[in-house]
Every structure is written in C-alpha cells, then in structure tokens.
Write a structure and sequence with these properties.
About 15% of the residues lie in helices and about 45% in strands. By secondary structure, the protein is of the alpha+beta class. The protein has a single domain, classed as outer membrane lipoprotein receptor (LolB), chain A (Clam). Strand 14 and strand 15 form a beta hairpin. The longest helix is centred in the first third of the chain and has 12 residues. It is globular and about 70 Å long.
Length: about 270
C-alpha cells in the first residue's frame, strides 16, 4: 500500500490566534487526534489532492476519492485506482490501472501491527517531537490546527523543508484534513541550470530569483480531507469482501478473477 503523506503550510493569515508552544502537550494532542485510526470499528471517506508548483509531469496532480472500512481485524480500502483487502489471513491488493492482483498471507501479528495511516505510533510521535517545530493555532471556536515545520540541523545542507498541518474538531478530536508541503529551495549555478535544460525541463518555471539570487524552487503538496468518520459496528459490518473480486479454484488450486477481474494478472506469494 502506498501511503500518501501528511501535512501543512506555515500559519495562514486567517488564523485567529497562535497559542504558546508546549511540545509535549501538543504531541499528546496530536496523538489524541490520530487515535481514531486505532478504533476496532471504523469507517470514513477521503478526498486526496496532490499538486505541485511548478507542474512538471501529469503525476504531479491528482484528485481521488477514497473509502476505508475497519471491522475488528478486517480492513478494506479503495481509492478507485487501487483496492486493498485484509481478510481471512490474506492481503489482497488490486491495481485497476495495471490490471494486477497480488495475494499474500498475513499472520495475526502483522494484522495487529498494520496501520494504514501510521501517524500515531510511538516511533512516529518521537520523530515529530525530534524533527519538527510544533505550534497550535485556533481557527475558530470549534476548530484548531497543529502546525509542524521541519527542523534543520545546524550544518544541514538539505534543500528541502517539510510543513505539516492537521486541522481538527476541538469537540470530537476528529481530523478534518491533513496536509503536507515539501518545499525545495537551493541556489542554482550555471551547471545546475544546464542540467535542468538537458532534462528537457522549462528553466523559467523551476528557477526563480529570490533576494537577488537564482534558486531552484519547487513545492509539492498532498492534502487528505476526511468525511463521514463513523465507529458504528453495524456500518463497518458492511465491509466489502474480496470474494466479489477473486475466488479459489479447487480444481486448478489457484486464485482466479471474477467478472471484470477475470483478465487481471494474479500473483500469489505463497
């Protein structure tokens, strides 16, 4: 499963107030917001948008709807282009663009550790605490936002900076959206400009003059909007089954696709 990442820009002009920073408290608040992913029964829909400035290739832009079910140990996710089923000790991944189906066996330990939005693990929280400057902004009486700005070590030469924002309800602590911006900015000498031209890229789009210095400048953004978050057991019991996509042929002793999936290439790893 490919995870589209999270995040944020710097505090915007419409923010009402910037609250005093208490990193430990903000990490706890972030953990509380993301705890919705660990509930045993969970349903939500998403809209994922990807964009870039400047746009270099078609993959720089994306707009897809998604759906997620978790019913105890069973999981299903769908973003139209890809589907994932975690059921009956199997992980089944379907790629509708490539017309492929991968089937793997999954043990109980792997199931327990699987998190399709792995933002609330101890390792991830420690990473945020160590590598980001964190602040909180009040957007309205009922909505707040956590802002993460990537730290750079004193002698770092990395040209990229990551900004994350997580907007959520103060009443329910459920996320409204998660957004990430990765910003690239570095001085552009003649050698670099020639390399850009050699790649067939438009120099005028990638190279900007900032403070009198020519610099390569690019932003990439991913934003995930959450809607219809629900922990109702009856709703999650309606989780789609992989058996509508594939079946096990007892004569051939192999999986085969059903209906429109009959022509998909199936790979099993066991």
């Amino acid at each position: 499963m490919k995870y589209l990442l999270i995040a944020a820009m710097l505090t915007c002009n419409f923010v009402f107030a910037q609250e005093p920073t208490d990193t430990a408290a903000l990490i706890r608040e972030f953990s509380k917001v993301m705890s919705f992913t660990s509930q045993p029964y969970l349903y939500y829909t998403t809209t994922t948008k990807m964009s870039a400035e400047p746009i270099i290739e078609s993959m720089d832009t994306l707009h897809v709807k998604g759906e997620f079910y978790k019913h105890n140990t069973e999981i299903y996710s769908n973003n139209t282009r890809e589907e994932m089923y975690l059921q009956d000790s199997l992980m089944i991944e379907i790629n509708n663009d490539r017309k492929t189906i991968w089937i793997r066996k999954v043990d109980v330990a792997t199931k327990d550790n699987l998190n399709l939005l792995p933002m609330n693990t101890k390792e991830m929280l420690d990473n945020f605490k160590k590598n980001y400057i964190i602040s909180k902004s009040k957007i309205s009486q009922e909505v707040s936002r956590l802002n993460f700005e990537g730290r750079k070590p004193e002698y770092s030469t990395s040209p990229t900076t990551t900004f994350i924002k997580v907007e959520y309800s103060e009443k329910t602590y459920l996320p409204k959206f998660i957004e990430i911006i990765i910003e690239l900015k570095q001085p552009a000498d003649e050698e670099m400009i020639e390399a850009i031209k050699a790649e067939g890229l438009d120099e005028s789009k990638l190279v900007k003059t900032i403070d009198g210095i020519k610099q390569v400048f690019r932003k990439q953004l991913v934003r995930i909007d959450f809607t219809s978050i629900d922990n109702d057991k009856e709703k999650t019991a309606k989780i789609p089954s992989y058996k509508t996509r594939v079946e096990f042929d007892t004569k051939l002793m192999e999986f085969t696709g059903k209906g429109p999936y009959r022509d998909y290439e199936i790979t099993t790893t066991f």
